[in-house]
Fold these 2 entries.
Entry 1:
Amino acid sequence: MELRHLRYVVAVAEELNFGRAATRLNISQPPLSQQILQLENELGVRIFQRTKREVRLTEAGKRIIAEAYQVLGQVDHLETVAAQAVKGEIGSLCVGALGGVNDVLVDTLQVFGKRYPGVHVELKYMCTSEQIQNLREGRIQVGFVALPVQHETLVSEFVKEQVLRVAFPKNHPLARRQRVPLSALGDQPFIFFPRRSTPGLHDLITGMCRKAGFSLNVVHEVDSIVASLVFVRAGLGIAFCVAGMEDKSDGIVYRPLQAPEPRIQYGMAYKREAQSPVLNSFISVVRRLVRK
């Protein structure tokens, strides 16, 4: 028995006329009659009662047609699912992200969720180095990281750029300035993150400070910029952060550095050889949003 046999019997059952069913199936009538007879012999039951005047379903035929509808419906559903999977319209995706709110990520999730409601998205917050490790091991499929990312198995694409700021406790003397020279931070207690958590950003900031003639006086370590703000609010030091974080705490004063203002680049990273329709759909949404 083949699927075409089921389509043949359904067409005849709906038309109750071999000629009209043959026309609908775009085949000639004799082969259709032959195929129906072959199926009846294979099943050992008559599906149709035939006379010169009419074609009628037998009682057994009614049950067989009901089952045929179910089988064909499942096949049609399978074909639909396969087509959606190929287009990246269904499936699952695990996304890594840095702590804090990333506007590009938020916009991507909004657009992607509306366009591909059949895709289940899981969001995991972790530092850049953790994302790199999880990407390599296949635990996440795409990550939003601090650039640069240098790993032979990963691809990274620029997403956004943000200006570096300094976060001070509200009553800190330097908070009175509208712009803070980098050289004024040389003797300040800093809340900072270890290089292993976000190597690119760590090197950018420490290199910038070395050029200004000092090394960071790190008094407490945290795993992210967002976490550092907790210590700042507690008055235990100052921290670098990015523009747009001003709403994180009313106990903190954010000040820009004097020109030229340092900038941090963020990007999207994914495994070079781990492409999938769902991942490609997600990447396409990010790229369109970045271009806008």
Entry 2:
Amino acid sequence: MNAVCRMAAMTLVATLAWFGMPAMAATQMKQASAEQVLGTWYRLVLELVRHTPTYSPPVASRSFAYLGIAAFEAVATGPGELRSLAGQLKELRAVPARDPSATYDDAVVVNATLTFATRNFFAHTGPTGQRALAAMAKKLSAALSTGVPADVVARSEAYGEAVAKHILAWSESDGGAVVENMGFPLEYQVRPGPAHWAPTSKIAQQQFPLLPEWGKNRTFAMPNGATCPLPTPLEYSEDKNSDFYKEGLEVYETVNTLSPDQRAIARFWSDDPMLSPTPPGHWISIAMQVLDQRQAGIEKRVDVLARLGVALADSFIGCWDAKYKYDLVRPITYIKRLIDPKWEALLITPPFPEYPSGHSTQSGAAAIVLAAEFGENFAFEDHTHEADGLIPRKYTSFWAAAEEAGISRLYGGIHYRTAIERGLEQGRCIAAYVTALKTRR
């Protein structure tokens, strides 16, 4: 087991141990009801993302979308104010209805929905993850059935599972349900020429780029992956007076002269697969922190997490569509060839084309969606990586956090400035389709 896998396993072991603590007693579980069930499952999912090898950022974003929608639809069929997303999201049909003459327990419904959905979306996680999933399901099921009539529990569990099955069946036709070889194609024609992506890793598996067909997946809220197009990137040039060369030189000089704070920013937003909940998980974590801070009710929570999940998933589809359309060379390849053959970036360059920045696209979309829910000038502190030893960072707004996430990729030596700025704007475009969703009756 390598160091990355050991770290992921240790994190999940700690999570598994937490589920066995007396704090999960039935009387305490019922205090928070559906809200605590939702939060507890999402905390486990953020750890499972770290532990599941196929969970690159695009794959993680897809699961966050479906989990959020499943929880939303399970609650929306109840007596509250939520309005189903059926007919609004691409090819989503109405979930099974509740029996209007029967009684349901919302906490049990949400738990059953997320139990079934999480087990399926993380069916390929490792043994430690499987044990954590089993422990979670057992603890919550026992806790939530205490004091609730047996027929209500049975009915609520059956209904939650029916909702999850409906969402899972919908997910299977989107183009992203099967991820083979961790997302790296077994055959791929790398485009010739110095302007195009070239492998940046010596790992055999990464001689072809990650998920080249992801941009063709079925979207959720926006019409298709090409809906929010980008201008053509700067014209490739090796002329020292060209704009392209100047952007490459900026990456080189920036990384060589990083301040301590810039270095910290790069590390904070790195969100590497297997070492973190990934970039989309980082924004899910931010949303959960804000929801907890506001002591939001279950309807607000599932609304925010569903919208955010959709925005993140559509962002990776839109971003990947552009990445493989333009297939632009990465800074490290350009710099080593033309500026300094011994240069190294601060962060590991991801194995796929450069333009636009995925961090920027998804962060721009997430920021717009969260600002629509909590306000454009909502200040917050992000504790996502506190357990990993990184100091929490403060932001005056969600957009300020998105801009920092974007520029972190320049500090890390991974992206040119144009890819960052245009990625943020692509995210803004994608978010408009999400904020237009009608979730209240």
